[in-house]
Design brief:
The protein is α+β, with helices and mostly antiparallel strands. The protein contains 3 helices and 6 strands. The protein folds into 2 domains: 1-44, no CATH class; 51-142, TATA-Binding Protein (2-Layer Sandwich), CATH 3.30.310. It has helices at 10-28, 51-55, 81-94; strands spanning 64-68, 72-78, 98-102, 108-113, 118-126, 133-142. The two termini are 39 Å apart.
């Protein structure tokens, strides 16, 4: 059963769908009494504005910003992902960031800034083309 009411959250639509299925199952079994309870808790957490943290991040020479949100930067950097990864690794360590995670291929890493208490997620993706280039995605979140 798919119940959609404008302005209703997906979780509430899902809960109403479950309630409808339970009602149909109860009616089909010709039960005279029955109880069915659905609880839904939706927690809204707005993304923190971490643009000052992103502004303070080192960027390789010639990097161009593709997009920006309150918590994420997307950059185009000339050079192979392995070269860009090494540049970020060296620059972040020099600024006092601590490496919390690194993928085996070196294309994903997470860094902790103990001073600002932020976690920086770094994702590197090769760009298809005739010259080596890398798409860099930086995401800053409060470190909890």
């Amino acid at each position: 059963m798919d119940v959609r009411i404008p302005g209703m959250s997906v979780a509430m639509s899902f809960a109403m769908g479950l309630a409808g299925m339970a009602f149909a199952a109860t009616a089909a079994a010709q039960s005279t009494t029955g109880t069915f309870t659905v609880s839904v808790r939706v927690v809204r957490q707005a993304a923190a504005d971490t643009t000052p943290v992103l502004d303070a991040m080192p960027t390789p020479a010639g990097a161009r910003r593709l997009t920006r949100t309150r918590a994420t930067d997307s950059l185009w950097v000339d050079g192979a992902p392995s070269v860009v990864a090494r540049q970020y690794h060296d620059a972040l360590q020099a600024r006092g960031y601590r490496l919390a995670y690194a993928s085996g291929d070196g294309l994903a890493s997470a860094w902790i800034d103990e001073r600002s208490h932020h976690r920086i997620e770094l994702q590197l993706r090769p760009v298809i083309g005739t010259t080596p280039a890398t798409r860099v995605v930086l995401q800053a979140t409060p470190d909890t």
